[in-house]
Each structure stands twice: as structure tokens, then as C-alpha cells.
Amino acid sequence: MTEDLWFGVAVIVLLAAMAAAFARWGRGPGEGGGSPVGRFVLIATAVGGLIGAPFWWLDLAPSFAWDLPPLASRMLGVAALAFGVTGVAVLEHPSAARERLFYILILAYLVPLALAAVFLHLDRFDFARPVTYGFFAVVIVLCVGSALELSRGRRVDAAQPSPGAAVRGWLLLAGLVLAVWGAALFLVPTAPYPQLFNWPQDELSSRLIAAMLVTVAVAFFLSRRDAGLARLALLFAGVYGIGVVAAGLMNAVGGKPMPLLYVTGFGVIGLVSLGLLAGMKGMRISPQAAS
Predict the structure, then answer these.
(1) What share of the chain is helix, strand, coil (3-state, %, to 5)?
(2) Is 70 within 8 Å of 59 (Cβ atoms)?
(3) In the chain, which end has fewer C-beta atoms inside a 10 angstrom radius, N or C?
């Protein structure tokens, strides 16, 4: 199957899934009170993440705008899965604050990556490939839509309790570590420390991974004072952390070096985040518990 045909099939699958998602979540503003633009962004991110995840995990050449190392491609798939699962959680149990947090995470992930791609790495893109135009179109639509929704002003929910001290401490500590690691990887992607900087020969792929580290840190920082948002952030980090472990273990299965620090660090992040999520009272994330 040619690359153009692969791209066409992917677009058809995405449109069909979007139609099904709109049938479930697209009618009316919902509990979050968002606009149709916001609802489109939420659904497109959730559905696109869930559909794209297996393609990127399998490192299929026609599925992304530049050639990724296999481990980076799997980690991209895991990031997509985290956005997809978290997006579904927001759509199933919407609130103004949870939707707002999700728009911020979209911007935190895509804006630095887009700026780096355009101003530092445009030579990595082949504009004869349809997936290149698809990549930039998706980035523009999601970023503009998220920014427009955030610009509508802060919709106020009822006051909600803060998470417990253990959760707040974890969100602060892990957030600081991820913020420093992600910022360093993004700003100095060629640093000669392979345990921390896994692709010094591929600056754009390093920055792709760094953007997700910073995004998880943003989720942690913004959710420290709200139990509902903390649940969402822990879910986001838990899915990504366990997924990165699986991605790293695939290297070992394939006889390739395993990124031990990534596997260990994100294993801790994933397990602790999911453990804290399970231990929070009212684990089900409802609009009344999410502000």
C-alpha cells in the first residue's frame, strides 16, 4: 500500500471515529459550558490520540511528518494515548476547569514543538508527503481552537476541595523534576548524557519527547489545589508513565539498549500517579468533583 493510500485510509478512519464521537459527546455545551469550537478540539484530540497511538507505536513510516527513531515513535504513541484517555475522561465528565486544563495541555505540548519545527527544523519535513500537511494542519487547528476557547474567559465552577498532602507533595516534586528535565532536553537536545538525552543526533525528536515532559509538569503544577484536576493530571501522567516503560521494554525485547533512566523514572511516575489516583476518595471523576 502506497503512502498516499495509507494517509487516505487514516483520514477515513479518523472521520468515521469523529462522527461516532460527535454522536456521543457533540450535542450541546455539556456540563463544561464550552463552545462548539471547544467541543471540536476536545473530540479531535481525544479521538486523534486514540487512533494515532497504535500507528506511532508500530513506527509506520507513513504515519508521521518526519522519520522518528523507533523508541521515540513508541513514546509519541504513548503520549497520544495519554491525551486520548484523558480527553475521553473530560468528555465523559466535563467541567469548565477540566476542559480549561485540557486546552492548556494541548498548547503546552504543541506550541513549543511547532515553533521548534518551523524555526529550527523545517528541513526535516518533506512537503511532497501529504502527512506533512496533515501534521501542520492538525497543530494549527488544535492550537487556534484551544487558544480561542481559553480567550472566552474563565467559567467559574463551585469551589472544590484540595487533594491530600501526599498528592500535593507528589505533584510538586514530580512536576519540578519533569519541568527541569524537559526544559533541559528541549533547550540542549544534543547534550552528551545518553541516559537523560536519548537522541543527541536527532534534535527534533528529542524536542518532541521534551515537550511531553513539560506538558506533564504543567498538568501537575496546575492541579495541586484542586482534587478533581489532580485526578485528571494523575490519570494523564499514569498512562504516559506506564506507556514509556512498555516502550523501553520493547527495546530490550528487540535486543536494543534499554533507556534505563527513562524506564525507571517513568515507571515511578506512572505507578505512583496511578496509586495516588486509586487512593483518592471518589475515584470516579464527576463534574461535581472536578473544578
Answers:
(1) 75, 0, 25
(2) yes
(3) N
